[in-house]
Amino acid sequence: MTEQARFMSKEELRTRLLGTWQLVSSVIRFEDGEFRDQLGYEPSVFLIYTAEEYVCAVLGAKNWPALATNDPGIATDAEFASEASSFLAYCGRFSVDDEGQAVTHGMEVCLFPNWVGRSENRSVHFVGEHLVLLTDSRIQSNGRKFNVEVTCTRPA
Question: Could you read off the pLDDT of 31-82 as tens digits, one per residue?
Fold first, then answer.
């Protein structure tokens, strides 16, 4: 049995998640077989799972253009809107489900305020030293079903 397919107890799953993970890839996979990068060119993502059962996720581009000012208090609304369109961050409690081999991320604070109070379920697989998280199936605005597969590794 491969490590990916091996069943892990709740405590083993939780323990394997703890610590910092850095993005390797994030891919949108459509039901019809098409796939594409979720976060565009050179994304930067960190997931941090703490022993106190909090998760912090920071997703963005590595090479954002600089704002016209170094003072965020005087940056324009247009500059902030541009930056926010390629950035997402949230933090909240996490829990693991050994039956479903899944982790649930709670969002207690989020850059996108409509998601505060929301929970997101991810199936969990470990492939070698990589963490692979797969979202539940979703429906895009045009009616196509898809899910997102995020692969991470420990930072060097």
Answer: 888 887 776 666 788 999 999 999 999 987 777 777 777 887 888 888 777 7
Give me the phi and psi of 41, to 5 degrees please: -75, 130
Contact assessment for residue 104 and residue 119, using Cβ atoms and an 8 Å cutoff: yes
Six token digits for residue 134: 């797969």
Smallest Cα–Cα separation from 95: which of 120, 116, 114, 115?
120
Q: Are 139 and 145 spatial neighbours (Cβ–Cβ below 8 Å)?
A: yes
**pTM (2 d.p.):** 0.83
CATH number of 10-66+76-153: 2.40.128.280
What is the end-to-end Cα distance of the chain in Å, rounded?
A: 28
